[in-house]
Amino acid sequence: MFFGSIPALVTPFSGGRVVEDTFREFVEWQIAEGSNALVPCGTTGESATLSRHEHREVIDHAVQIANGRVPVIAGCGSYSTAAAIELVRAAADVGADAVLVVVPYYNKPSQAGLVAHFTAIADASPVPIVVYNVPSRTVADISVESLKEVAKHPRIVAIKDATGNLARVSAQRLACGEDFVQLSGNDDMALGFNAMGGVGCISVTANVAPRLCSDFQKAMREGRWDDAVKLQDRLYPLHAALFSDASPGPTKYALTRVRNDFPADLRLPLVDPSEASKRAVDAALEHAGLI
User: Fold this and answer.
1) Are 204 and 215 in contact (CB under 8 A)?
2) What are phi and psi of 137, to 5 degrees?
3) Catalytic residue at 218?
4) Which of the ends of the chain has fewer CB neighbours closer than 10 A, N or C?
5) How far is CA 59 from each of CA 50, 165, 242, rounded to the nearest angstrom?
6) Of 79, 106, 132, 218, which is the active-site residue?
7) Quick one: which of 83, 85, 131, 138 has its CA closest to 108?
8) Can you say how many angstroms the Cα of residue 80 is from the centroid of all Cα atoms in its chain?
9) Taking the CA of residue 151 as centre, how many other CA atoms within 13 Å lie in the half-sphere pointing to its CB?
10) Is the pTM of this model over 0.85?
11) Residues in a beta bridge with 73
């Protein structure tokens, strides 16, 4: 259902507002460069700082611009199950093809609570659900056993796995079945993730290097592992540099280097990346042949 290079889109801001024209051009560029799907309103899109109206509008813009050319997987997570359901329904109303729902953060639910959370959302959702597991941000970690339980629901079809544990790919494949879609949430581990049975990556780096990330994923799908390793080596410094300060600060800075007039504005509590981070991004962009 979902595969390949899937950018977790940044949200361009200027003067405190979402810049619709820039977003439109950015999405068109992503599609032209070979991205296989789009994720608006994820963590990289600073979703926690968006109003409910902005959240709906950004997803709506992505759907309208994509116009069926690639799937749109809308970020719709919350630590409140009721709030997540509201976001999911709003995303479905504007035409999102699927939703990305993060493991609830801050309140540290039990495994039984996680199963109940995702089951309730799936029962209420008109569209397929991608579970997003990122314990470094949420503290809570949906176990393989709990994922197996929720994957029985017909609308829970995939996972974005950002645990950093490659063994999870095999364990989840055995637990959830070969048809359950596994997408890496870590650019730097995407090579190993796909070798273990994954089929793609919801990517930060693809914001900046969509063609290279698309070529990288395509090489793995076609079994051209030597080509994939070469692309991994070309991209690896950029993967690291984009997390050399709080994300997506380095990514927005990188976009100012590869896209004319792309705004670097962030919303508080995020601030501009450090000078050291910018130097790391510049070096990585040069290494990748992007500047």
Assistant:
1) no
2) -105, -35
3) no
4) C
5) 11, 30, 24
6) 132
7) 138
8) 20
9) 23
10) yes
11) 98
Gap between the Cα atoms of 72 and 203, Å rounded = 14
| Cβ neighbours for 45, distance < 8 A, ≥ 6 positions apart | 8, 9, 10, 11, 39, 58, 75, 248
CA-to-CA separations, 120 to 114, 204, 290, in angstroms, rounded? 10, 29, 44
Q: From the CB of residue 123, how many other CB atoms can be counted at a distance below 10 Å?
A: 10
Under-70 pLDDT residues of the chain: none
pLDDT at residue number 186: 98
Phi, psi of 108 (to 5 degrees): 50, 60
The DSSP annotation for 147-208 comes to HHHHTTSTTEEEEEE-SS-THHHHHHHHHH-TTSEEEES-GGGHHHHHHTT--EEEESGGGT
The residue from 152, 160, 230, 253 that is catalytic is 160
- Helix (H), strand (E), coil (C) string for 51-95: CHHHHHHHHHHHHHHHCCCCCEEEECCCCCHHHHHHHHHHHHHCC
238-254: pLDDT as tens digits: 999 999 999 999 999 99
Q: Give me the sign of the Cα torsion angle 79, 116, 203, 233.
A: positive
Judge whether 160 counts as a catalytic residue. yes
* Alpha-carbon span 286 to 291, nearest angstrom: 5
The count of other CB atoms within 10 Å of the CB of residue 86 is: 15
Supply angle C-alpha 172, 150, 71, rounded to 5.
Answer: 80
| β 13-14/73-75 pair status | unpaired
178/182 Cα distance (integer angstroms):
9
